[in-house]
Design goal:
By secondary structure, this protein is an alpha/beta fold. It has helices spanning about 35-40, 50-60, 75-85, 120-125, 145, 175-180, 180-195, 200-210, 215-225, 230-245, 250-265, 280-290, 320-325; strands spanning about 65-70, 90-95, 110-115, 130-140, 265-275, 310, 335-340. The protein has 2 domains: about 35-145 and about 250-340, Rossmann fold (3-Layer(aba) Sandwich); about 170-245, Orthogonal Bundle (DNA polymerase, domain 1), CATH 1.10.150.170. It has 13 helices and 7 strands. It binds S-adenosylmethionine (SAM).
């Protein structure tokens, strides 16, 4: 049975030119409250949470329950999970970026875990919460990470080509450009960035690096400028996205997180995952439906595998309303899927 090929692009950063004006974080209002964003979301200058009411509804929070926010960031989602929790509730929040620590509220119900969520099971055990009632992951990078010039995530600034969310990790984007083979570069540019001429770009990088350092955003852009296709801002946004996904092994971490979900959720507990890239969304969809990463084509007539401990709460992914997309362009490519443990 032929399957329609999904586009690998759908990331919030590639949906718009990099230098397009960003929404002001302090303007506008959260749709369902009518209040200014800054009043509803602490640290809104750090990041505006996407699909906020949809996440809260999806998690169906029990006031006395234990929850995990795997991607704390500015704590926008977490602050609302906390509001729904009673005094006996508990919230464990993960973020591998040290900058996120400054946003952790002084609240005895909160435990901050400054590590990669790929180690979810281990750290939940360590903090005395091996089983939880709900889990959220809002994948990718925060606005803060894009807007911090020195982090090297954005094509808008001249900076070291770093792109590590976790500064303790060794490999930077510059290291990838310097050490990966032509074949490896081609594959990641094609799969994670859907760069139109990924093969030519990979060949050019390998050729140019023999004589030219490409360790800053500008040096890299200049070094490969002869092969840029179409709008340079869009082109480099796609290239940077591909490098960022590789630097942080975003697909590998997501796979490990998904594999941990059935074991860490209590019966009736829910996992809500927001993706911004169709490859990520596909991993979530297949795993929630089958409880494994086996190709879904093997079970074309079943909505889920019989021994899958998870059940999809919504058949289709939940997307941002037109109003939210207007207010926060980063929500345009967001897809939320929610699964429940049986
Ligand atoms: C899109 S932001 C989350 C924003 C948050 N929901 C909010 O409302 O402020 C993603 C955050 O997750 C973190 N992150 C991404 N992948 C991670 C991983 N594998 N392990 C731990 N943290 C991760 C990033 O450092 C970033 O701060």
């Amino acid at each position: 049975m032929g399957k329609k090929r999904e586009s690998a692009i759908g990331n919030r950063e590639t949906d718009r030119p990099e230098n397009e004006a960003r929404p002001s974080n302090q303007q506008g209002a959260i749709a369902d409250s009518g209040l200014p964003i800054a009043d509803v979301v602490p640290n809104a200058g750090y990041h505006i949470p996407v699909l906020l009411s949809e996440v809260l509804e999806g998690l169906a929070i029990r006031p006395e329950g234990t929850y995990v926010d795997c991607t704390f960031g500015g704590g926008g989602h977490s602050s609302h999970i906390l509001k729904a929790l009673g005094p006996k509730g508990r919230l464990l929040v993960f973020d591998q970026d040290a900058d996120a620590a400054r946003n952790v509220p002084d609240d005895p119900r909160v435990t901050f875990v400054p590590h990669n969520f790929r180690h979810l099971k281990r750290f939940l055990q360590l903090h005395g919460a091996p089983v939880v009632d709900g889990l959220l992951a809002d994948l990718g990078v925060s606005s803060h990470q894009f807007d911090e010039a020195g982090r090297g995530f954005s094509t808008r600034f001249e900076a070291k080509l770093d792109m590590r969310m976790d500064q303790r990790q060794g490999k930077t984007a510059a290291d990838i450009l310097q050490t990966y083979s032509e074949g490896e570069l081609h594959k990641l540019l094609e799969q994670y960035g859907e760069v139109t001429n990924s093969k030519t770009l990979a060949r050019t990088i390998v050729e140019v690096r023999k004589t030219t350092a490409m360790d800053t955003t500008l040096a890299f852009r200049n070094a490969v400028s002869s092969v840029v296709k179409g709008n340079p801002n869009k082109y480099f946004a796609q290239v940077f996205q591909a490098l960022r996904i590789e630097v942080n092994d975003e697909m590998g971490a997501l796979k490990e997180l998904l594999e941990a979900v059935p074991a860490v959720l209590a019966p009736g507990g829910r996992a809500a995952i927001i993706t911004f890239h169709s490859l990520e969304d596909r991993l979530v969809k297949v795993f929630f439906r089958n409880g494994t990463f086996e190709a879904e084509e093997e079970h074309p007539f079943e909505s889920r595998k019989r021994d899958n401990p998870l059940r999809l709460v919504n058949k289709k992914p939940i997307e941002a309303t037109a109003e939210e997309q207007k207010r926060n362009p980063r929500s345009r490519s967001a897809k939320l899927r929610v699964a429940e443990k049986l």
